[in-house]
Amino acid sequence: MAQPWTVVDQLPTPEGALELRQRGPKDFLIVVGGRVLMSSSAFRSELALAEFACKPLIGKIKPRVLIGGLGMGYTLRAALDMLPADAEVTVAEINERVVQWCRGPLAGLANDALGDARTQLHVGDVAALIAQSRACWDAIVLDLYEGPHEASQRPDDPFWSKPALSRTYAALAPGGVLAVWAEDLDPHFVHRLQTGGFGTVDVHHPGKGGRRHTVYVGRRRQASKP
């Protein structure tokens, strides 16, 4: 018989109870309203997300990377593992309790990514942080809930609408990379990226077999030569 899950911690949210569950020493789930958001046994697309964002930065001096969404820390750790010692990685997480989990029971999963000297923590809305930024991030990595999908088509969506993507484009340095995680492919989002300045957009489905999530990758154009 499989070992039952234990609720380690929980708090109410508008979407339902946000819970950290544990089964055994290293098996964890983050659940909201009974729906699994993250599992410590299935995170290949989170690793791929960071790899697609950071690979173009190899060799760059003092790269600056913004990650929206902490989760269990896997995306942050994968980015840190690819970036040089002089990199600056800001991770924005809106929920302080998730930060506490990643500093506590989840810390070992991502080799204490929050404790890395290159990590800067921003507790708050990453959309607001992006809106305040101008041409300063070499990569923006968004690993947020479901990602773009049919219900996020509305023109005022804070992350996936045309105005939001324009703000993200403006926040990237010339040649900067935008990488977005999603549960499923949304062709309308690809079109918004393409018409929002990102031009050619790469769509990836990491891994083989099982549930394969989607990673979108676009780039801001390089600065024009005088």
Give the arrangement of secondary structure elements:
Layout: E1 6-13, E2 16-22, E3 28-32, E4 35-39, H1 44-54, E5 64-68, H2 74-82, E6 88-93, H3 96-103, E7 119-123, H4 126-131, E8 137-142, H5 162-171, E9 172-182, H6 187-198, E10 202-204, E11 214-219
Parallel strand pairs: 5-6, 5-8, 6-7, 8-9
Antiparallel strand pairs: 1-2, 2-3, 3-4, 9-11, 10-11
Helix pairs in contact: 1-2, 5-6
Q: Could you characterize the architecture of this molecule?
A:
This protein has 6 helices and 11 strands. The protein has 226 residues and is α/β, with parallel strands linked by helices. It folds into 2 domains: 1-41; 43-219, Rossmann fold (3-Layer(aba) Sandwich). The protein has a 7-stranded mixed sheet, sandwiched between helices. Strands 1-2-3-4 form a 4-stranded antiparallel sheet, with no helix packed on it.
CATH-scheme architecture of the largest domain: 3-Layer(aba) Sandwich
Largest beta sheet, briefly? 7 strands, mixed
**Cα-atom radius of gyration:** 17 Å
Ranges where pLDDT stays below 50 over 5 or more residues in a row are none
Distance between the termini: 69 Å
Number of helices: 6
Please name the fourth-level CATH homologous superfamily of the largest domain.
Vaccinia Virus protein VP39
Q: Name the structural class.
A: alpha/beta
Proportion of beta-strand residues: 25-35%
CATH topology (fold) name of the largest domain: Rossmann fold
Shape: globular
Topology as H/E string?
EEEEHEHEHEHEHEHEE
What is the number of strand segments?
Answer: 11
Mean pLDDT, all residues: 93
CATH class of the largest domain: Alpha Beta
Strands side by side in the biggest sheet: 7-6-5-8-9-11-10
